[in-house]
Amino acid sequence: MIENISFYILQAQLEEIVNAEPSLSSIEIVEKCFGPQNRSHVVAFGGGVKMKYLKGGTSSKAKLLSTLCSTQKGNKYLNEENKSLNDRLSTLEDEMNEIRKMKEFFAAQQQQ
Q1: Are residues 44 and 35 in contact, defined by beta-carbon separation less than 8 angstroms?
Q2: 47 shares a domain with 91
Q3: What is the pLDDT of residues 3-24, one digit of tens each?
Q4: Nearest Cα residue to 44 out of 3, 85, 15, 104
Q5: Are residue 74 and residue 30 in the same domain, yes or no?
Q6: How many domains does the chain have?
Q7: pLDDT in tens, 59-100
Q8: Hey, CA dihedral for 41, 44, 46, 51, is it positive or negative?
Q9: What is the pTM of this model?
Q10: Helix, strand, or coil (residue 23)
Q11: Which of 23, 17, 15 is nearest to 57 (CA)?
């Protein structure tokens, strides 16, 4: 549980750095978060991630950021839609409960 919390804190910190300075390379972002890295292993960026895996042009980074942004917008829309549908379902359930109560009431009235 604590690992998940620290992961989300780390993720938020990385996103904040990327949003503040989108021109930074991946290794520069890592070094801003964790300090200088050695040649063979990048600390806390993922088990066994080497610098050669982090190399890439800024165009690919910009494309990834664009995809991330559009995905986040899509997720926001889907979450709002989900909330709306859950609200409608709740309303329908309440109405069904009222109908059941009325049905029971009329059934009891007819038996008398």
Answers
A1: no
A2: no
A3: 556 667 777 777 788 888 888 8
A4: 3
A5: no
A6: 2
A7: 677 788 888 889 999 999 999 999 999 999 999 999 999 999
A8: negative
A9: 0.41
A10: coil
A11: 23
